[in-house]
Structures are given as C-alpha cells and as structure tokens.
C-alpha cells in the first residue's frame, strides 16, 4: 500500500443493527478496488473483516475491524463496527475516531434498536452521516418504506436520496444516480440512460437534491430563488458541503446490495466526495490542569502530536496490537512517543496498517491516518500519545455500565495465579468490561454488556492460558434488624490455669442509612475502658460474614450499657468473644431481615411489544415508574430487584427477537419478602 497524505485520506465507520449487511458490504468494496479477487461470505467464514475465530464461528462481528481500501487516489479507512448491542463500546470508540458515519439499514427490517443506538452516538459526537439502505435484493425489501421509516424515526434530519433502486427484491439490478440522472448496471461498470419507468421518480428526487444543495449556503439559496435552478457543479458542491456539515442535518441516502455487489461503486465515489478529509476535523482534548479545549482545523503533520488509542488486541503469540487514530502530527517506525495518559514513553518498533488480520508494514503515517503498532508495554485502550511538554489527552467517550455478570472460578492453582493479570489485560482493552472481587458475596465477578460479550471474553482468557469455570453470581444481599433487642451474655472459661471471664449487656437497634455504629454507656467502671474496644472488635468480626444468611450486616447500632469483669480472668480475648456472641444473640432477637438491591431499569422496545414487557416486569416484582415514546419505540422506566434481573438480557432478547435493549443501575435497597427470605436462608445453610 502506498503512502497517503492527509488530504487523500478518508475515515468512515460502518454502523447499524446486527445483520444489516455491513461486513458483506465491505467485501464488495474490497472486491471492486481489486484488494481481493473473490468476495467472501459470512456463511463460508472467509470475510476479511470478520477474521477472528470467534467471529467466524458465531457468524457475528465481535469487534471493530480496520479495512483500508484504495480508490481514486484516495485511501478510505473503513472501520467495520459490530452491530450486536453487547459490543456497543467498540462501536462508540470507532465513531469517536472516524470523520463520517455510514449508517447501514436493512431494507426489510428498517430502523432497528441498533440503528437508533448508532445514530445517537454519531449525533453525540457531531458526526456527519450517510445512510445506506442495504439488502434491497431480499424478499420483502422496500426502499420507499425504509426511507419513510427513517424520516419518521429521525424527524430532525433531511434524508436526500442520491441513488434510487432499479427494481427491488429479486428484480433489483442497478441504481440511478439522481444527480447525473444516469443508470448504473453490472457492478457499476456500465452506465446508460434512465429506464422510462423511473423518469418521474428521478425528476422528483432531483428537485429534492437541488433544494438540499441550495440550502448549504446563502449564495446558492439566493441564486436558486432568483433563477430556479443551479448548475451541475453548484449542485455537486452544495450537496458535498451539506453532507460534510453535521449542523445542516442533511443525510445523503444510497441504495445497495452488498451480497449482489449492486450500488457499491457509487457508494465508494460518495465516500470520497461526501466525507471530509481528516484535515478538517477538530478534536476535544484535556489539558494537564483538567481544562478542556479543542485542537482546531486544519490538522497537519506539523501540528502537535495527538494520537488516540481506540482498540487493543492481545494475542498469545503475537502480543498486543494497538490501534490508534492520528488526529494531528505524524509518527514513524522505530521512534519513541510519549503516552500522556500513563506518563511513560513507548517505542514504535513495528508500525503497520491492517486490512482485517493482514499486516501491511509502513514507515510513516500522516495526520488523520489510522495505524497499528505492535508490542507496546504500558498502553491501553483510551490512551493518548502526545508530547511530554503539552501533556494533552484526547477526551474519551462515556461508556455504558455493564449489564451481565458471572462469577468466576479458576480451575487450578496455576490458573488462580494467572487469572487476575489476564482479566486486567482484557478489561484494559475493553472499557465496557470489568472484573472485581465482590466483598459482599466473596466471589470473583466479571461484568460485561451481555452473555455473548462475557462468553467471548472468557474464551479469549482461555486462549491466553487460563482455565476458568463460571457460575451464576450471588445477589449482594445485606442483613439488618427491624427492632431493638437486648441481651446479657457471659463468657466464662476455666482450664485449670488462668481463666477467661467477661459479661456484657448489649443492645442492638436499627440504624437506617448510617451503617454500623458502636456506642458505650458504661457507668461506674463496671467494665474497664481498656476492654470496650475489645467488645467492638468482637462485634465487627461478625459484620462481614453475617448471621442470618451469610451476607454483610449493615445499618445496625450496638450499644453496651452494662457488664461485669473479673480482676484476674478478664482479658481482651474474653471481651472479644463476649462481644461477638452477645451481638449474635441480640441480632437474631431484633427482627433480622435481608435487604436486596433494587435496580432502576430503562427498557427500550418496539411499541408493539409493550404489553409483553409490562407483563414480564410484573412477574419480576417490578414497579413501573414511567413510560415514554420516541418514534416507533417505547421506553419503560421501572424499579426491579436485582435478583430478578440477573439474566434479563437473555429473556429480553428472546421476547423481542433481539430488538429490545436495556440499561440499569442500583437505585436503593429494600427488605426481601419473608417467603423469599426463607429460601435464601435455607440455601445458605445447605451450602454451609
């Protein structure tokens, strides 16, 4: 691959709902540019962008793949982002580093939840967008219905068809260029006059196109109003400006069949014309003092170095491959660059560009390009390379909190020693992935965006050499009391030598919202002040392990108000034991209950599925707090116990055919109903 300067580079990301045909579309683009001599198929597990074993096995994109193509003296860096909602963190980072977003929409299914998620991410980052209505060759495909669906779903945007289909479904055989009013056939290689039956539709679309082009500038709109027309060059330039300016909310619409390679050549032409070169991009950065600012256009090699790491992949044999976007400045192989996020310097030994898994060595990358460097030691996803003097860091996107949790058990002692470092490495590569030791349940837990996300992570951990078994995580219940109880406990032990003696009168009472508190009301010196901390130590030894069902105790107050001691046999250990056992007795008499975490859940589903969702929430002890509608989607906000939500992602996907999504966070704790408490206590006793 030849060297490209900033003006001849385009960075675009393909996003959309799963199975909208992004990966197949990339195959067609590669084939048309001669990068491959035969189009791969997902069913045959031989596509360029789905190169990972797990992706080919599942027939699903699991990570963003970098696929550069060369067309019309331009290098187009295509980022094929996963559409499966479990991997939306990867998609969000890909949108962050691209300069334009290509939203791929299935001509049969129309706008889906994944489309909405991608659209909102692009809007969040002020990215200009292009829509590709794909799979027009499929049964039940309908270009006009899908276009209307887009207008209904995103009413603030103007959707301007630049291409129209010639035929649909099995009869889809070419496209019409609305600007030139010419037809493209035979993979775009043949151009001819319009079919007669499309003359009227093309004229109407052409008028819409001219109006959108005119609205891109005051000069053009004045000329259009005064003369009623624009020249070919003015229409082309006006539409280019409209498409590149996110503030105009103008979205060019193209029509393709990736599998049949129809409409893909005009799409490549559009990626050169309608997307901005990276020199025009501005990027938000964070200064060393925490203040946020921008690196404004134009970007160039002579500007300050600003490279953002958007992906890192660890391979057992190759090591770590670090993917980065150069927003400003340039990099060379065998040079050293400063990681301002970690405060370390790294050597770029082997600089390359990737096409799927194919490594293409290079010596230099210019401002705006996307590249890969191997075997960096201290660099992770989200890091920034800049100069030590500037200390700039490119701001990271906010990522959604994990939704799906599993408990982990290493299979052997050797696996236990390796598990922590490998999990840390994987989580540093993926900002939507977390692992931790849960002190409440005493389990090692891994959290991700869904079952597939977590399973893929565990499979990768095993490839890196650690054996892991998984199980359902425990719910982090808490134990507390509902009333006040008093006990007097005597600890007396005689062994023939020095004995042990301690007697305390202890009161346990609720302490809602204030955690654990210890108080003494000893008068008259019946217990020496030296032993009062010993009682507290004994009580605290119970708090972590629980009494009722083995869960941590919180929101209780222990008050020592009387007691006795022996001048010889009373000692620290005796009062610790008295404190521990006295607290146990008082706790069990003070109306002990379990408290469970209640989650605030936000569920987005098609409006037609609302009834099923509401009924399901009721069966999960959920309380609906509010409902809203956005386009054809309904949004339900509810509070639901975590115990009922541990595998909700699987059930929601089943109920909605993969079209529903949800997010949740801890809201508060509530008392577990008594009929459920009995089962939890019995399970704890059985486990013990």
Name the features.
alpha+beta, Elongation Factor Tu (Ef-tu), domain 3, 16 helices, Rossmann fold, Alpha-Beta Plaits, 688 residues, 7-stranded mixed sheet, 37 strands, 8-stranded antiparallel sheet
Give the N-to-C terminal Cα separation.
64 Å
- How many H/I helical runs? 16
The largest sheet has its strands arranged as 18-17-23-14-15-22-19-20
Overall pLDDT score: 93
Stated plainly, the CATH topology of the largest domain is called Rossmann fold
Number of strand segments: 37
> What's the gyration radius in Å?
32 Å
Report the biggest beta sheet as strand number plus sense, adding barrel if it closes.
8 strands, antiparallel
The domain tally reads 5
Strand content: 25-35%
Secondary-structure class: alpha+beta
What is the CATH superfamily label of the largest domain? Answer: P-loop containing nucleotide triphosphate hydrolases
Q: Helix coverage percent of residues?
A: 25-40%
> What top-tier CATH class of the largest domain fits best?
Alpha Beta
CATH architecture of the largest domain: 3-Layer(aba) Sandwich
Please mark out the parts with pLDDT under 50 across 5 or more consecutive residues, or reply none.
Answer: none
Broad shape: elongated
């Amino acid at each position: 691959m030849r060297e490209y300067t900033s003006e001849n580079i385009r960075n675009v990301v393909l996003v959309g709902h799963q199975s909208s045909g992004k990966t197949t579309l990339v195959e067609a683009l590669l084939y048309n540019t001669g990068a491959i001599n035969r189009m791969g198929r997902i069913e045959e597990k031989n596509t360029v962008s789905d190169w990972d074993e797990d992706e080919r096995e599942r027939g699903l994109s699991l990570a963003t793949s970098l696929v550069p193509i060369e067309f019309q003296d331009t290098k187009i860096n295509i980022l094929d982002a996963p559409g499966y909602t479990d991997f939306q963190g990867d998609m969000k980072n890909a949108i962050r580093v691209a300069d334009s977003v290509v939203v791929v929409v299935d001509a049969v299914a129309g706008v889906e939840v994944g489309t909405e998620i991608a659209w909102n991410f692009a809007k969040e980052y002020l990215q200009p967008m292009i829509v590709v209505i794909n799979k027009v060759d499929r049964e039940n495909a309908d270009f006009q219905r899908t276009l209307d669906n887009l207008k209904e779903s995103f009413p603030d945007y103007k959707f301007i068809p630049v291409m129209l289909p010639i035929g649909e479904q099995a009869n889809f055989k070419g496209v019409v260029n609305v600007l030139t009013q010419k037809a493209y056939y035979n993979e775009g290689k043949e151009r001819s006059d319009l079919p007669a039956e499309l003359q009227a539709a093309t004229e109407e679309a052409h008028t819409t196109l001219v109006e959108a082009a005119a609205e891109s500038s005051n000069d053009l709109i004045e000329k259009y109003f005064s003369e009623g027309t624009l020249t070919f060059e003015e229409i082309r330039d006006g539409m280019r400006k409209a498409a590149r300016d996110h503030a105009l909310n103008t979205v060019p619409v193209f029509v393709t069949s990736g599998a049949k390679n129809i409409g893909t050549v005009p799409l490549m032409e559009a990626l050169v014309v309608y997307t901005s070169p990276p020199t025009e991009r501005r990027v938000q950065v964070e200064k060393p003092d925490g203040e946020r600012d921008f690196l404004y256009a134009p970007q160039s090699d002579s500007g300050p170095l600003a490279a953002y790491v958007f992906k890192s992949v660890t391979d057992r044999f190759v090591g770590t491959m670090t993917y980065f976007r150069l927003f400003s400045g340039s990099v060379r192989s065998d040079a050293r660059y400063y990681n301002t996020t970690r405060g370390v310097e790294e050597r770029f030994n082997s600089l390359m560009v990737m096409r799927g898994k194919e490594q293409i060595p290079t010596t230099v990358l210019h401002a705006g390009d996307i590249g890969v460097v191997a075997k960096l030691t201290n660099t992770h996803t989200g890091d920034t390379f800049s100069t030590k003097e500037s200390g700039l860091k490119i701001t990271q996107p906010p990522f959604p909190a994990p939704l799906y949790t599993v408990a982990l058990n290493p299979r052997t002692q050797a696996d236990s020693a390796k598990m922590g470092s490998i999990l840390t490495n994987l989580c540093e590569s993926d900002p939507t992935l977390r692992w931790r030791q849960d002190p409440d349940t005493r389990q090692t837990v891994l959290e991700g965006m869904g079952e597939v996300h977590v399973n893929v992570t565990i499979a990768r951990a095993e490839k890196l050499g650690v054996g892991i078994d998984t199980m359902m995580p425990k719910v982090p219940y808490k134990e507390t009391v509902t009333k006040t109880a008093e006990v007097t406990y005597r600890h007396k032990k005689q062994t023939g030598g020095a004995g042990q003696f301690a007697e305390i009168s202890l009161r346990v009472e609720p302490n809602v919202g204030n955690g654990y508190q210890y108080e003494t009301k000893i008068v008259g010196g019946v217990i020496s002040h030296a032993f009062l901390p010993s009682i507290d130590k004994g009580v605290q030894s119970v708090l972590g392990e629980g009494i009722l069902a083995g869960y941590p105790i919180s929101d209780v107050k222990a008050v020592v108000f009387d007691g006795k001691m022996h001048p010889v046999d009373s000692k620290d250990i005796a009062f610790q034991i008295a404190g521990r056992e006295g607290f146990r007795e008082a706790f069990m008499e003070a109306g002990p209950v379990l408290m469970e975490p209640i989650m605030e859940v936000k569920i987005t589903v098609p409006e037609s599925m609302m009834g099923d969702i509401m009924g399901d929430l009721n069966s999960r002890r959920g309380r609906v707090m509010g409902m809203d509608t956005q386009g054809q989607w309904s949004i339900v906000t509810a509070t639901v116990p975590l115990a009922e939500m541990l595998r909700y992602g699987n059930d929601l996907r089943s109920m909605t055919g993969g079209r529903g999504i949800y997010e949740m966070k801890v809201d508060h704790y509530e008392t577990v109903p008594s009929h459920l408490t009995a089962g939890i206590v019995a399970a704890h006793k059985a486990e013990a």
